[in-house]
Every structure is written in structure tokens, then in C-alpha cells.
Design brief:
Blueprint lengths: L4 H32 L5 H12 L2 H11 L3 H24 L3 H20 L11 H19 L3 E2 L8 E2 L4 H29 L1 H8 L52 E6 L6 E4 H5 L4 E8 L10 E10 H7 L13 E6 L4 E5 H4 L6 E6 L2 E2 L9 E3 L13 E7 L22 E6 L11 E9 L5 E8 L5 E2 L1 E2 L9 E8 L5 E9 L21 E5 L3
Parallel strand pairs: 3-12
Antiparallel strand pairs: 1-2, 3-4, 5-6, 6-9, 7-8, 7-12, 9-10, 9-11, 13-14, 14-18, 15-16, 15-19, 17-18, 19-20
Helix pairs in contact: 1-4, 1-6, 1-7, 2-4, 2-5, 4-5, 5-6
Length: 526
Amino acid sequence: MTINRAAVKRSVLAALSGLLSGYTALAVAELVAAFVRPQAGPVTAVGGAAIDRTPAPVKDFAIRHFGSDDKLVLQLGIVATLGLLALLFGLFALRHRRTGAAGVLAFGVLGAAAALTRPDASGPLDALPSLVGAAAGAAVLYVLVGRLPRPAPGPGGAGVGGRLDRRGFLLAAGATAVVATGAGALGRTLGARRGEGAVASRAAVRLPAPASPAAPVPARAALRIPGISPFTTSNADFYRVDTALVVPKVDADTWRLRVHGKGVARPRTYSYQELLGRDLIERDVTLTCVSNEVGGPYVGTARWLGVRLADLLREAGVRPPSRGGPADQLVARSVDGMTLGSPVEDVMDGRDAMLAVGMNGEPLPFDHGFPVRMLVPGLYGYVSACKWIQDIELTTFDAYDPYWVRRSWARRAPIKTQARIDTPKPFARPPAGTTVMVGGVAWAQHRGIRRVELRIDDGPWQDADLADQDTVDTWRQWSFPWRATPGGHTLTVRATDGAGHVQGERRTPTIPDGADGWHTVFVTPG
């Protein structure tokens, strides 16, 4: 079999032309998005649309296995897919030049459609990045492939019509790569500058002292046992689970919060400074993500500073259902279009539900909702912890299904009683014949932890030593001195909350309202 080297070389250069067209399209789109808004870029828009349409079990899988990197994995997957398609368009354009370029344009139209249908779409201009980028990519493909000799008529099209101007092609391709790289770099620089006002507004914030400060954390609430999670989770280590591919950079000076809806006698709009000027409360609260598997990492405790949410609602004339109020659901909306629904009764039952402005002594980080986020102790984050909040609407559960409820998650989601073994780690090999400190954390926000028990293999349950409890809204550390014996052993933990509920044994998935079951760790002392 004879290989036509000229045909192979031509195909390779056509594929390269396709990749350069795709690269140009993304780079130009990023530049245009810097002038429109970063969220309108095609990768972000298509990624957001993909997140919205991904089945709940697949999303849960991504969060479980990739954690906070799930968005990066998605974006890399989108770029890889676009690269493969661009390569194929290049090969197709070798025979059908205009049709190949039209294929690039078609994907621009899809990107524009994704941008225009996002919940946070700002208008027709959101279509520009995808359309302009695709037009640039199509032009590049058309021009570069035009420099390649077309297949000569004949059996199989194996012949080559014309002589390949390799130097001319490489010069054009190199110039394209340089210009596209420059456009992308300029787009990233300009995009970063769009958030400078928000960064400056956060830097200028001076959080006032709370009118109701948190009590000092008891000295024995934090055990000095290596391997146990710190009682307070640092901002840098606090878990992040959301759908935002681009973290919103909201300027506190222009931010506003609207309170309206069913049963709101006096609708209100608040500025950031108005919230800071109110009596603030400071509380230690443990937050938990509903996607947290048994023994998982998506739980953390911080000291939050904020405004009592119930006070704002009462000022607006809102009454809970138990007092005759017509609304039983509070829908919180984020600047990126996310919607979360909380029971009005829970928000107004006396717990420390708040609009938080501070986290561990500083203004909220952008990743965690600056300038303002909502939190309700005792409820999973997907029904209570709206970041970058800008709107609160009172309605009913029958009238409206928020984002996650439309994707098979439960409407109501109190946090389940859970205990976790932090140390020893799975498959650890501690020295046999020594005392091994087994330890971890347990949580049942708004109920507190009354008891933690540990079982070695199929032996009896034994009480663990509990650290002092800070509040019922925080997790509680525990420890158990175990005399390790040689061989494989399964360590199992369970908790009992302040209401007397014992953590269930049967493992259940996170969908629809949070995982349940005992956490186990297998170790082999030797």
C-alpha cells in the first residue's frame, strides 16, 4: 500500500488550520467578553448551560470526585471538545471550504444561544462574544485552508492539485497564533480590570463591632489531637460548592438587596452600608453541603457576622405561617441567577438565620459570597446559603420551585445527624500494641451532639470522649483511645443528637435530601 505523503501533509495542515480557527475564536471571544461581561464568554455560557442540564446524579458525582475543581474539569472538557471539533472542521474544510467555515459559525450561534438563555443574561449584547469569536475563527479557517492545494480530481481524490506553499502557510499560521494569543491576553487583562471596583470596595470595608458578639469558644471545644479537623475552618480551607464558573465580583457600593413578595406589607431595598449600620450579630455556625457523602469533606465551621434575617422580614411586615402569614417559602436570588428556597417558619423561629457580611473576622471572600450571603443554621446549603444574594421574594412552595428542586432535590432539607472519623485515615498502618487516638467531628446543627460512639469490628458500641460543645449550631469534636491489635480492623462511628435521634446505619445517597449512614474506616495495625 502506497502512502500519499503529500495528501497526509495536507491533511495535517488542514487539521492545524482547524485548531488555530478554534483557538482564534475563543481568544477573540474572551476579548469581546471583557467589554460585555466575563460571564458572556462562550466557555462560561456553554459550561453554565451544561451544568443546568446535567442530571443531578452526574453533578453529585462531579462534586464528590473533583470537589471545588469540578468547574475547572468542566471547562477543560469543553475546551477539549471544541478543539476536537475544530480539528474535524479543518479536515472537512479541505474539501468543502465554505461548509467547514460555516460549521465554526454554527457553534458560535450555539454559544450565543447559551449566553442569551442564562438566568443572569443581561441582554442581546451577551451574544456578541460567541458570534464575533466564531466569525473570526471561521475567517481564519477559510483563509488558511485556502492556502492549501485542493485534492485533484481522480479516484479517491488522492492526487494533489497545485503546489504546497509550506512557508507561506506557516507564516500565516504563525501570525494567526500570535494575534490570537495577544487578543486572549488582552481580554484576560481587561476582564480582570472589570472587577477592580469590586476588589477596591471590599478592601475599603471596615466591619463594625457586633452588637451581639459570639461567646468565646470553650477551651476544650478544640481537642489537641493530630489529624482532627480544626474547630474553626479557615477561609482558605472552607469548602466551596456552587455552579458559578466565573466568581461574581460585586461592587459593594452599588449592591442592593430587594425584599418583596407575598405577605410583604412594606417592600424594602437595602444598600450594603445600610446593613453595616444595623445591629449585627456574630455567631459560630457549621455549614454543610447536601452533596457531602458520609465521611465527606464538605462541612466547615466559621465565625459569621451579619444581620438577623428575621428582623428584616418583620420590618417588611412578614409573618411566619404559624402566625397567619400567607408565604411559607423564602426564595433567595443571587446575582448569577441562582435561586434557593428556605422555609419561612425556619428563618423566623428564633434561630440565628442571617445575612452575613463577615467571615472569620474579615469581609466575606468573593468565593464565599461578598458582599452578602445568607445562611440558616440547621439547613443544608442548597436551601439556605445563597451567596452573592440580591433579592428575597416571599412566596409559597406550591407556587415556585427553586433551581435545585427543579433538578430532583427535596424542597425541605434539615441537616442530618452525622459523625466522621478524621484520624486514623483509611488503610492506615498504626503500630500494633500501642494506643491509637481515634478522633473526628460530629454535627447536627440546631440540635447539637449529645453522644458519639465507636465500634471496633463487630464488637460493642463504646462511648467516645466529647469535646465541650460550643453551640448547638456547631460541630463537636470527639476522641477515643484504642489499643490497636495486629491485623485488619474496621472502625465505625455513630452520633446521637440533642433531640435523642441516633444516626441511621443504612447508607443512603445524597439525593434527594442528604446522605445518611455510619462512617467506617479500615486500618491494619502491624
